Amino acid sequence: MPCKRPVVGVIGNAAMLNESYPVHAGGEMNSVAISEVSGAMPLLIPADPRFVSVPELLEACDGFLLTGGRPNVHPEEYGEEETPAHGAFDRCRDAITLPLVRACVERGQPFLGVCRGFQEVNVAMGGTLYPEIRDLPGRMNHRMPPDGTIAEKFALRHMVSFSEGGVFHRLMGAQQVMTNTLHGQGIKTPGARIVIDGHAPDGTPEAIYVQDAPGFTLAVQWHPEYNAAQDPVSRPLFAAFGEALQIWADRRAPLRIPA
């Protein structure tokens, strides 16, 4: 009898449709990666405590994709004052994702962090962020190109080097890979138990996980959901996430006693 597909809560972002109609949105490429590579069912989550709670999400979903998003984690979440450089915020998403990450780490429930999601994992564990990477001496501009097609914006732009023999090196089968880059902020200080397992050539952290966590806690600063089924870096990441999801789903499935 085939296994039931795990359910992945895809963290949605608040947006305005036609500049006047508020929506909760999620990129289609997230759903494609979860469905086609992870073998799971994507379920878009309105990341707003008016509509959902962390306990409800933990019960409804087998794991979570902490997606990218234009608004940033509010600096109050890591003990700093808001400045214009910190950009736009989504306090409702902060209120859901940060405690959700901590709960998943404790329970061993799998999640995969992407871009803003990568930053959320660090902040949830007590880390801090730089408001603008490109303003730091010696750092490159990691932001999405302002013009061009989707393919041009998500094109591979820099190398990421993993720790020799580390989690990402073993997963990818390579110590160096090429990735896209579409972010403005980045890790300043790592949170408790956050292991920085990969860096860009300018030293920017690009791959992390939570040390000694009982479940899947990988997060990356780039956007692996783009072209995930074909990309040699994205595919093993989403495939490994899928395996962790299936293990969790099977573990909590009710026991079926033959008649």
Secondary structure: elements and pairs:
Layout: E1 7-11, E2 13-17, E3 21-25, H1 28-37, E4 41-45, H2 54-60, E5 63-66, H3 91-107, E6 111-114, H4 116-124, E7 128-130, H5 150-153, E8 158-162, H6 167-172, E9 176-179, E10 186-189, E11 194-199, E12 205-210, E13 219-220, H7 234-252
Parallel strand pairs: 1-4, 1-5, 5-6, 6-13
Antiparallel strand pairs: 2-3, 7-10, 8-9, 8-11, 11-12, 12-13
Kindly describe this structure:
This protein has 259 residues and is an alpha/beta fold. The chain has helices at residues 28-37, 54-60, 91-107, 116-124, 150-153, 167-172, 234-252, and strands at 7-11, 13-17, 21-25, 41-45, 63-66, 111-114, 128-130, 158-162, 176-179, 186-189, 194-199, 205-210, 219-220. The chain has a single domain (7-252), classed as Rossmann fold. Helix content is 28%, strand content 22%. The strands form three sheets. The chain has a nine-stranded mixed β-sheet, sandwiched between helices. Strands 2-3 form a two-stranded antiparallel ribbon. Strands 7-10 form a two-stranded antiparallel ribbon.
Quick rundown:
It is built from seven helices and 13 strands. The chain is α/β, with parallel strands linked by helices.
The computed structural class is: alpha/beta
The percentage of residues in β strands lies in: 15-25%
Give the CATH H-level superfamily: Class I glutamine amidotransferase (GATase) domain
Q: Gyration radius, to the nearest Å?
A: 18 Å
Counting DSSP H or I runs of 4 or more residues, the number of helices is: 7
In total, how many beta strands?
13
Distance between the termini: 16 Å
